Amino acid sequence: MRGEELVMFCWPDLSGLARGRAFPVADLHDRLVKGIGWLPVCQALTPFHHLAEENPWGAIDDVQLIGDPKAQVRVDLWDDVPPLHFFIADAYELDGSPWEGCLRGFLKAALEAFEAETGLRLFATFEHEFHLESETVGPDFSLESLRLEAAFGALVTAALRAARAEPETFEPEYGAAQYEVTCRPALGVAGADRALITREVIREVARREGRRASFTPIVAPEQVGNGVHVHFSLIDEAGRPAGYDEARAGDVSEVMGRFAAGVLRQLPSLTAFTAPTLVSYMRLVPGHWSAGFNAMGIRNREAALRVAPIWRGPGADPARQFNLEFRAADAGASPHLVLALLVRAGLEGIREKLPAPALLEVPPADLSDGERAKLGIRRLPGSLDEALATLAEDKLVKSWFPPKLWEAYFALKRTEINMLGELEPKELCERYRNVY
Length: 436
Ligand code: GLU
Ligand code: MG
Fold this sequence. Notes:
Blueprint: E1 6-12, E2 18-24, H1 28-34, E3 36-38, E4 63-75, E5 84-92, H2 103-118, E6 121-132, H3 143-148, H4 150-162, E7 167-172, E8 178-183, E9 186-187, H5 189-208, E10 213-214, E11 228-235, H6 254-274, H7 280-283, E12 296-298, E13 305-307, H8 318-321, E14 324-329, H9 335-351, E15 359-360, H10 369-374, H11 384-392, H12 395-399, H13 403-420, H14 425-435
Parallel strand pairs: 1-5, 12-13, 12-15
Antiparallel strand pairs: 1-2, 3-4, 4-5, 6-8, 6-9, 6-10, 6-11, 7-8, 11-14, 13-14
Helix pairs in contact: 2-9, 4-5, 6-9, 6-11
The structure holds glutamic acid (GLU) and magnesium ion.
Magnesium ion (MG) is lined by residues 129, 173, 180.
């Protein structure tokens, strides 16, 4: 018995999760017009069943969630279970105006400001690493590891295809039982939508197999981290690539260089959003191919911003392939928030005409303190506590936020620290692993 199909309208929340309310599919037509009521206070939910100790949304507020038909997912691959059916939703005040705590709205506003000022639009895709609960573990990157999960990989690909996420690759990664999935880039808000969809679809496939796929930043201390790498490129009004310029260092165009400089300048405070869990900082250390510093490099896996490689063989179009990869994010963060912050910081770099960052050919940790200081390279915060303290001082980043959303984020993360701050690293990893 599959019962009566339910559909969920869900929002991407500050904890990097999808939460919302479901209704019978028979009402879908109606719901797409009038939406469904929801609780603003849920935006201040920690990943661990508790609300932030102090949060700006009280017990009496209401908002309305309305699913975006462009962000509908329906995956019907199981005979004994109803389809996975959800919409990513926008949140509105009851009078129909956008609700200030909506992260999808926050991203849309950032993209609109960016396009209005620069005439440019942004393509993005989020590369996801995850850990798959398994009894047998094959060698890293091997055909053996792929075949051990042949059925899982094929189901993930079919499910992502059904979800219109345009799957591109599925591969065994460097860590034990670690896999990676990439999907094709999408324009604007669809890039972030696709990231949320990828995580939820993969979790669903694992769930149906009686297993868990975890996107937690790190499964155990001393393990390889699960990164979320955001690849992004720019196009102009005529649809031409705007990030590439062969005449400049690293082929990074002037506007892309300024964008990158804006991101790197704000990165020490932005890590509180992009690497937002207590375990994120076990991953974000030099020597882990993640990002220990706010540095940029060509194909440099130790840099927070990496100029991604380009195939220059026959028939290749380098300008269309060109993209930058932001490596300092993980799945504790809402993809919508991460993308919005990259756009806001990049726009600021363009406004201020910041010079393009130096392109490092060595891991930033190999430079002396003096060399790093000369290049403006700083160590990223070493803990969530430190990241929040750095963020709290950043007036520019604060100016991008509606006051209540800013307040809620600090309340939320400080509650998370109060709840878990005393745990041993191993247990801490386990707690996050069970959620993400
Ligand atoms: N696992 C690494 C991370 O935590 C990334 C490895 C890679 O370059 O794919 O970001
Ligand atoms: Mg990888």
